[in-house]
């Protein structure tokens, strides 16, 4: 699955492996469920770890795991199901998570700007996705009217212009 | 994550002697053009088959485009119901060019065009953008147009001007990155007067703006009100949220909803269900979120509020005496003018001025419909006599907020010539009705024709005056777009084994004494509704004590006498 770096529209190689509940742990960076990450058997593992956050789990329920994680993966089961946006914002804003946040699921180019502004870093593009549509969509509207996760100094309520890095 | 963000200053309004609404600058216009480009791209992708109809639907809805029974309906945003004369003229042009020469003003203070073609929509959007208008977020599961008191800035009892905060909420909620894919639509209403004219208890969020002893501005926050198939009155979450924390608090309210609101069942997805189900736990979660979110980041800077407020500075009212002699003489000499003025003219905070409500409820007409010619006539009257400003009211009428009292006869003449001087504002024939079976794909019954029948039956003005204040609200299905639950008399059309049946509720209210109407009994057939309404009103008149309105009498005597009158003989 192609991986899009949402800030600059580059395609990235994906070296992460989603690991099923009972599958053995690979050498490669592994995306696991919260339950698996809490498994004592994992204690000695040195590889990079990621967590698959399902839309019904609140980030605070997995906050204890965050220090060990390099990646959190969120999912939009349907284009209209926007719970991931609140999860991602909370991961950045409340939990100070600075690792990769990856969006997966039924994503449309029209989500691009919102994903980026909430703090998503990479997007697992669905099969057959139109890369150009994604790139255009991330940039077509570059004026914003509200605070989000893409600004360092707090700007409060005022208009701002977004610029790709 | 390393995108750079540059702050942009708010525009300073130029102050020509006309309408007070937020004035776009080149940044806001650029934003609108970008948004049109985005939507045009979406339409193209749909036409090329890259988007399925399922994928396209939420995108077109977010631009106000509905598929109705016969055609597309295009819902245009009128931010907090305020229009300039120029904008109203452009709406007239759109009605003529791309619709059938009229538009329909709604209880959400917007306008809908019922007969547009999909291929014309990008052109319509461009025509709207010429006058700084759009249809962004008029539909879809996002934060919709904020509604306010239609007499804002004019009402004598106003404590805080709600327009300023409605504009701030408009900007803050526009393409909000976190709140564009909520479980369901989200509607905010604000009142700035102790008398609630914005129905804050039947909105997802209702804000009562007020001042404390030190004169500081803050907000009482109500949440989880709504009508539809599960009518619920709102719960008060907070007595006081300081002005600078308003957006932070709204963020908390909506974050909890976005995280926990139901998504599986569309009928349980509104915030009202979450608030009802969680009870105090909802409030606790909001308070916890509010306590931990970075306040500086979401701060509403008083300096910025002041800049927005400049856009709504009072127009240059002349120092004039109340009741100018010429108008007083006209009231005495002309009974028709006097009858109109009695219903349509309201007190204004500036001496010598008045607010004028224009009835869009001609006897036997379609509530809220307005022809292109009528729009132009109102635009012209607004320019001549009302600082070029027009409002859309939440009962589907129009308002000229600031008229000189000495101009009232001329305004009335102008309205009369345009067929807009029906003297029934606030009376029985000032009916709210949703589009119902005539347009709406979800309807289970007709509602416009019912409104027409009732209005014809009670056409006699003396009779309407005898009855006094009594609001009839009609919906063509359980979704309650016609607000039937909060009508003094509410009428809901349902389908009963293939025939239309109308259920009647009594005693609803959407203002400070908010209440949901009570069902009076079994429904009435289409051709029996008007008789039933007549029976209800006769019963009221028979029981009324001195000075009571319909709803007062109802509250005193209860359902029983009405039931008896309606069903005893049947
Ligand atoms: C003809 C196309 C229309 C369709 C398909 C439609 C559909 C709906 C639906 C499905 C709901 C219920 C939503 C829910 O409870 O979650 C609703 C609510 C509502 N509609 Fe409409 N509507 C239409 C036209 C209108 C018009 C013309 C008005 C204004 C006159 C209007 C005003 C409202 C209002 C105020 C509500 C909110 C009631 C509440 O608090 O739940 N709608 N509409
Ligand atoms: S109440 Fe029902 S019939 Fe009326 S407009 Fe709403 S959805 Fe349509």
Explained architecture:
Chain A is of the alpha/beta class and 165 residues long. Chain A has one domain (3-161): TIM Barrel, CATH 3.20.20. In chain A, 19% of the residues lie in helices and 23% in strands. Chain A has helices at 34-38, 83-93, 112-118, 131-139; strands at residues 3-5, 11-12, 17-18, 30-32, 49-52, 69-76, 100-105, 122-124, 143-144, 159-163. Chain A has an eight-stranded mixed sheet with strand order 2-1-8-7-6-5-4-3. Chain A has a two-stranded antiparallel sheet with strand order 9-10. The radius of gyration of chain A is 16 Å and the shape is globular. The two termini of chain A are 24 Å apart. Chain B has 570 residues and is of the alpha+beta class. Among the domains of chain B are: 26-130, Alpha-Beta Complex (Sulfite Reductase Hemoprotein, domain 2), CATH 3.90.480; 154-310, Sulfite Reductase Hemoprotein, domain 1; 435-567, Sulfite Reductase Hemoprotein, domain 1. In chain B, the strands form four sheets. In chain B, strands 17, 18, 19, 20, 21 and 22 form a six-stranded mixed sheet that branches. In chain B, helix 1 packs antiparallel against helix 2 (53-61), helix 3 packs antiparallel against helix 12 (372-385) and helix 16 crosses helix 17 (550-557). At the A-B interface, helix 2, helix 3, helix 4, strand 9 and strand 10 of A face strand 1, helix 1, helix 2, helix 5 and helix 6 of B. Bound molecules: protoporphyrin IX containing FE and iron/sulfur cluster (SF4). Protoporphyrin IX containing FE (HEM) is lined by residues 66, 68, 73, 106-108, 112, 184, 202, 226-228, 270, 434-435, 439-440, 442, 479-481 of chain B. Chain B: Belongs to the nitrite and sulfite reductase 4Fe-4S domain family. Chain B: This is Nitrite/sulfite reductase. Chain B: InterPro entries: NIR_SIR_4Fe-4S, NiRdtase/SiRdtase_haem-b_fer, Nit/Sulf_reduc_fer-like_dom_sf, NO2/SO3_Rdtase_4Fe4S_dom, NO2/SO3_Rdtase_4Fe4S_sf. Chain B: One of its GO terms (molecular function) is metal ion binding. Chain B: Residues 139-287, 431-566 form the Nitrite/sulphite reductase 4Fe-4S domain.
């Amino acid at each position: 699955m192609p991986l899009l770096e949402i800030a600059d529209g580059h395609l990235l190689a994906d070296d992460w492996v989603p690991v099923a509940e009972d599958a053995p742990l690979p050498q490669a960076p592994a995306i696991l469920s919260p339950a698996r990450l809490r498994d004592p058997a994992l204690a000695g593992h040195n590889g990079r770890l990621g967590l698959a956050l399902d839309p019904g789990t609140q980030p605070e329920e997995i906050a204890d795991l965050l220090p060990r994680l390099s990646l959190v993966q969120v999912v939009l089961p349907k284009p209209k199901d926007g719970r991931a946006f609140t999860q991602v914002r909370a991961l950045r804003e409340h939990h100070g998570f600075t690792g990769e946040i990856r969006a997966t699921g039924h994503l449309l180019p029209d989500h691009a700007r919102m994903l980026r502004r909430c703090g998503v870093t990479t997007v697992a593009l669905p099969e057959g996705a139109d890369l150009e549509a994604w790139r255009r969509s991330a940039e077509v509207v570059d004026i914003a009217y509200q605070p989000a996760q893409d600004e360092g100094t707090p700007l409060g309520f005022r208009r701002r212009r977004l610029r790709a890095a | 994550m390393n995108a750079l963000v540059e702050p942009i200053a708010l525009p300073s309004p130029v102050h020509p002697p006309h309408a007070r609404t937020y004035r776009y600058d080149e940044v806001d216009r650029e934003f609108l053009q970008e948004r049109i480009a985005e939507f045009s791209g979406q339409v193209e992708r749909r036409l090329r088959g890259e988007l399925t109809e399922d994928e396209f639907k939420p995108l077109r809805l977010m631009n106000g485009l509905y598929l109705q029974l016969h055609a597309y309906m295009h819902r245009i945003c009128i931010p907090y119901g305020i229009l300039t004369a120029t904008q109203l003229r452009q709406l007239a042009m759109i009605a003529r060019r791309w619709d059938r020469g009229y538009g329909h003003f709604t209880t959400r203070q917007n306008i809908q065009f019922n007969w547009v073609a999909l291929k014309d929509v990008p052109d319509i959007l461009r025509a709207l953008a010429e006058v700084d208008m759009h249809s962004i977020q008029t539909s879809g599961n996002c934060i919709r147009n904020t509604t306010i008191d239609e007499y804002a800035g004019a009402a004598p009892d106003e404590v805080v001007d709600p327009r300023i905060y409605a504009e701030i909420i408009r900007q803050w909620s526009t393409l909000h990155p976190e709140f564009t894919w909520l479980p369901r639509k989200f509607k905010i209403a604000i009142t700035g007067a102790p008398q609630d004219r914005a129905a804050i208890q039947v909105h997802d969020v209702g804000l009562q703006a007020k001042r404390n002893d030190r004169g500081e501005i803050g907000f009482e926050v109500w949440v989880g009100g709504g009508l539809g198939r599960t009518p619920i009155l709102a719960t008060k979450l907070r007595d006081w949220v300081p002005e600078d924390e308003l957006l932070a608090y709204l963020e908390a309210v909506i974050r909890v909803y976005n995280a926990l609101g139901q998504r599986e069942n569309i009928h349980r997805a509104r915030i009202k269900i979450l608030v009802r189900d969680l009870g105090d736990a909802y409030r606790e979660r909001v308070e916890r979120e509010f306590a931990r979110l970075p306040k500086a980041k979401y701060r509403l800077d008083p300096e910025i509020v002041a800049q927005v407020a400049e856009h709504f500075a009072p127009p240059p009212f002349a120092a004039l005496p109340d009741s100018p002699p010429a108008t007083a003489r006209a009231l005495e000499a002309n009974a028709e003018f006097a009858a109109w003025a009695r219903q349509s003219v309201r007190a204004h905070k500036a001496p010598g001025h008045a607010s004028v409500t224009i009835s869009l409820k001609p006897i036997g007409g379609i509530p809220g419909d307005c022809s292109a010619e009528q729009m132009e006539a109102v635009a012209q009257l607004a320019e001549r006599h009302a600082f070029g400003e027009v409002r859309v009211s939440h009962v589907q009428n129009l308002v000229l907020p600031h008229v000189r009292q000495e101009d009232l006869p001329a305004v009335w003449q102008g309205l009369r010539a345009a067929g807009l001087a029906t003297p029934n504002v606030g009376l029985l024939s000032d009916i709210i009705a949703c589009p119902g079976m005539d347009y709406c794909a979800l309807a289970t019954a007709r509602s416009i024709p019912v409104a027409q029948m009732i209005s014809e039956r009670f056409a006699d003005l003396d009779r309407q005056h005898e009855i006094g204040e009594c609001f009839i609200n009609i919906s063509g299905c359980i979704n309650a777009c016609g607000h039937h639950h909060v009508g003094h008399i509410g009428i809901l059309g349902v389908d009963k084994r293939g025939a239309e049946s109308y259920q009647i509720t009594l005693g609803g209210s959407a203002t400070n004494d908010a209440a949901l109407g009570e069902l009076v009994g079994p429904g009435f057939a289409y051709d029996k509704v008007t008789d039933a309404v007549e029976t209800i009103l006769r019963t009221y008149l028979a029981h009324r004590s001195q000075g009571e309105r319909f709803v007062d009498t109802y509250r005193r005597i209860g359902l029983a006498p009405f039931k008896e009158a309606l069903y005893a003989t049947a």
